[in-house]
Amino acid sequence: MSGSLLLQSVILGVLLGGLYALLAAGLTLYFGIMRVVMIAHSAFLILAAYLAWWFNRETGLDPMLSLVVTVPVFFLAGFLMQRLLVSRLKPLTLTMMSVLLTFAIALIIEGALGFIFTGTQRRIQLPYAGDSLNVFGAQVPVVKLVAFVLAAFALLSLYLLLKYTRFGRALRATIQHPEAARLVGIDTDRTAGYGFGLGLATAAIGGTALSLDATIYPSLHWHWIGPLMAIIVVGGLGSIPGAAIAAMLLGISQSLLQLPLGATWAQTVFYVALFATLMFRPQGFFGGRLAQRF
Amino acid sequence: MRNVSERTASAALGPAVTETVVVVPDTPRRSRWPRLVSLALVVIGAALVLSFPFVAPNPYILSAGVVILNYAVLSTGWNFMGGFTGYISLGHAAYFGLGAYGTGLIVKYLQLPGFVAWVLAALLVVAVSIPVGIAALRVRGASFVIVSIAFVLILLLVFQSWREFTGGSEGLIVPRPFPDLMRPEHHRVFFYLFAALLAAALVAWWIIDRSKFGTALKSIREDEDKARSLGVPTTRFKLIAYVLSALVTALGGGLYALWFGDLDPIFQFSILVGSYMVLMALLGGVRHLFGPLLGALVVGIALEYFKLEFGDTQFHLVAAGLLLGVVVLFMPDGVIPAVRALIDRFRPQQTSIRDVTAAELLEQNRAAATSEPRAGASSDHRAGAAPDPHADADNREVVR
Amino acid sequence: MDALHSTRRRVTAAFALAASAGLVLSACSGGPGDGASADDDPIVIGVSLPLTGDFSEPGKGVERGYEAWAQIVNEQGGLLGRQVELKILDDQSNADRVVSDYESLIAQDGVDLVFGPFSTRLVVPSARVAQEYGMLFVEPAGAAAEVFEQGFENLFYAAPAVANDHYNYLADYLLSLPEGERPKTAAVASMDDPFAQGTAYGLRDKLEEGGVEILVDEVYPPNTTDFSVIAAKIAESKADVVIGGSQYQDGVNLIIALQQLDYQPKVAAFSTAPTNPEFASAIGNQTEGILSPTGWSETASYPSNVEFVEQYTEIFGNPPAEDEANAYTTGQVVAAAVEAVGCAEQGECQQQLIDWLHENTVETVVGPLSWDEAGRPSGAHLIQQWVDGEIKIVLPDDAKEADFLIPKPAW
């Protein structure tokens, strides 16, 4: 195995890890806010990818332009989902029942996509699909780079939003201590709704990024939810930086392990990491004080 | 009656006393479901099941009956964990698949007779489920669900990739245990085998439900921290329930392999199958012996119907999703309690509740506190605080 | 206990009574074999196809082929003077679905004939159902060796050659090249699917025997969408020949990933994908020189083929592809047997149809077909290549429409 192949794999891993990081950030956000394991996250991801594909097919414009519509729509959908559905669940059984509820939503999305667009595999045909840049002897596909930049930009915006805005502080307070947040005058219910909206907005961006260089079909979301859930456990449930770091590490590991093990076995790295985390450090490796209790 | 015996049983336990949620009856107790009626219902139900192969108009309907019985076995198996402890596993398809593939692989490599392989495979699955259970049960709710889903996905990967051993995506062909039977006869034999397995699973569930062990498990479901503080060895009990649940599910899977003959990793390790188990149990009612069976009947028939009517669309997914959403939002305790509540309205005053959820109890307590205080019962009650979305503990009163 | 028993017996009896009433009702509503196959009733043909899931792309092609066949037959007066009617169910590319589909078609709907599904993975379980109900089972897609090793007597593969022989002409040609031009190394990537692997490994093994070194040999599961690392390995090996055991979308994805890494092989052979009408636009029209085996050619001069291409194009607005042709061939084979034997219903008729096909040769759009006792056809596949933006037959020499292009131009 030569150095250039190794470099190639690391680059592919980083490009993949960026997308994982964005999506896992959304997933861990819901958990932080509401202790909700949002199974439908990746279904919304695929939905966004389909919308980007459909947009591109109908208009012939660049699929990334569809973000102008999908991001606000997904944000609203997330807000409504939290306020109208998740908040109806009884608090005592919230974690378990929210899993089932979001699972049901995932099934509905998958079924509806299959119903409308059929189960045929789809792929956006971009003029620059086969182009690549040569970086130190490694070929970096342009579409993957675009997807990565999109994801990284979204993740950075999310970070800045949470860190430096009034809303971000309210949201973090809600995550850290909801009772105290209420005492200082934060409308935690509304904030939680906005948090859900943010989570789904990341799915919209992630899905569009995904659609640039991947084949999509309705049941694809099952192949995403497993790795994403493993990432948020390894990173520590509820911790966004933890999720981002774990996503990057696992993305690179997956890419590197594909060389000796092949595509399928390499995917098991997520699950091995998941089981190892639960066995040895259930609170996660990068922060996340929530895991043990929930 | 049950009430009293349960309490004496737990009193006799000594230090490891388990706590059950019991409301002291404030009027003399009367059985809500007369024994005779229950028995008659069970007998009629059994007779319906046993006579089905003779009245099924064609082998396809019979095979659909086998599928539904299989679902009932799986869902009842799931309910050993989900119903007793309240831990919802979305990944029980893993044990279905392991049972099926285990049986098939043992027949293939060890040349053992099908039913011997079936039992061996189930024992192997028990061995597998112990470490998985330990890992999954180290953490509460959310992580448990994540592990359960991850376990199915990892097995799907392994069974797809390990071609030399499992046959990979091409699947595995399990030889028929009765090669001489014509297809309709084959369906009929397996219909009775599945019925027997279901009966065994139901009896086991019923015994646990009435045992002190079952009471302890239910205390975990209602309040794990409190159960632990009262001396219930929660981790060990949860693990036992998990392993039992895996065992029943694996037996269902193994029997399926012998019946169906063609195993495909995508179907054997499908999250969808696991979610059907949950949907069936939840729809029927996880606290009830026949809940999963009822759910399997409804969901199983609905699935066949959707397949026949909307064969070439994905509509069945939407329907399943909507049904699951409705159940979760509007009747998380299932159909049986809903129906019972309806019947009870037309019955003389209800007297005792053997099994109530913490949430229900909270509401009753609140109602009792606000309405006129009745002697005895409500003196211990306190008006519950408004539920806190993040509290996992103290919304509940245990009244003795 | 006694009381319980007698109760049960009484209940059973009562229930059986009620149930047999239901039985009469359901029989009226049309179970199988209710003997009402009057001469003017349509012949109902049951099919289960993967219209969703992993194989939906080729599955839909097969569906179009069957529909075209039914329409063309009906326009010409039907079979035995009866119209034909297709009943198509979706098996979602699932083996458990395909079995219950055929079970419901045969036992519940009482179809008169069945056609096979798509993909080897689904052919084996469904052929067993058909076998156990004694039905003739002609199928358009189960070409892998193991299909014919299950001891089916009712199965016939309606195409010229089994999967492992698809590339025979190409292997012979490459190995016959002079020393300097002969490829020395090859890289293989195949879907984990018996058909795709059968085709790719047929070529791989023949090349290896001929002294070509196999540098990369990868297998990916049917649901793979990210081919970047497989492509990286192939590109790294700089193999002269790349062999893709592909269905459709996986082939497209692999080629794009290879293009992204700027890998330029001398020979690129992919199963099935390049014959798909959308293939060229899907890979950005960089098709020049890509090879594919085909059992069928649009331009072949068999009389029924000319008619098929013409009428299909009229119905669907574009010419058929190989999946459509294979499905159409299936229809032709069954139709030939039905017309010869003079019956089309469940029961003894099916065995007569099976026996007739074992003994006779059928003229089809892919030429004359005959089968051995296991249902293997005894022909060979043509090799096609994209030349000047069109896919043309280049091998064997006596059928060629263009000259073989080697080395392949850059993509």
TrEMBL record, chain A:
Transmembrane stretches in the record are: 6-29, 36-55, 67-86, 98-118, 138-162, 192-212, 224-252, 259-280
Q: Which domain of life is it from?
A: Bacteria
Name a Pfam family for this protein. Answer: BPD_transp_2
The entry sums up its family as follows: Belongs to the binding-protein-dependent transport system permease family. LivHM subfamily.
What is the organism field in this record?
A: Agromyces humatus
- Record lineage: Bacteria, Bacillati, Actinomycetota, Actinomycetes, Micrococcales
User: Membrane topology for this entry?
Assistant: Multi-pass membrane protein
Q: Tell me the protein's name.
A: Branched-chain amino acid ABC transporter permease
Keywords, sorted A to Z = Amino-acid transport, Cell membrane, Membrane, Transmembrane, Transmembrane helix, Transport
TrEMBL record, chain B:
- Bilayer-crossing residues are 36-54, 60-81, 93-110, 116-137, 144-162, 189-208, 239-259, 265-282, 289-306, 318-343
Disordered: annotated segments: 366-400
Stated membrane topology is: Multi-pass membrane protein
**Compositional bias annotation for Basic and acidic residues:** 379-400
Question: What InterPro entries would the database entry show?
Answer: ABC_transp_permease, LivM-like
Keyword terms of this UniProt record: Cell membrane, Membrane, Transmembrane, Transmembrane helix
Where is it chiefly localized?
membrane
As for subcellular location, the record says:
Cell membrane
Which Pfam family, an example, fits this chain?
Answer: BPD_transp_2
Entry protein name: Branched-chain amino acid ABC transporter permease
Source organism of this protein record: Agromyces humatus
Automatic annotation (TrEMBL), chain C:
Gene3D superfamilies membership = 3.40.50.2300
Segments forming domain Leucine-binding protein: 42-389
Q: Which domain of life is it from?
A: Bacteria
User: Sorted alphabetically, which Pfam families does this protein's record hold?
Assistant: Peripla_BP_6
Residues of the signal peptide: 1-26
Q: Which UniProt keywords apply?
A: Amino-acid transport, Signal, Transport
In the record, the note on similarity to other proteins reads:
Belongs to the leucine-binding protein family.
Protein name per the record: Amino acid ABC transporter substrate-binding protein
Organism of this sequence:
Agromyces humatus
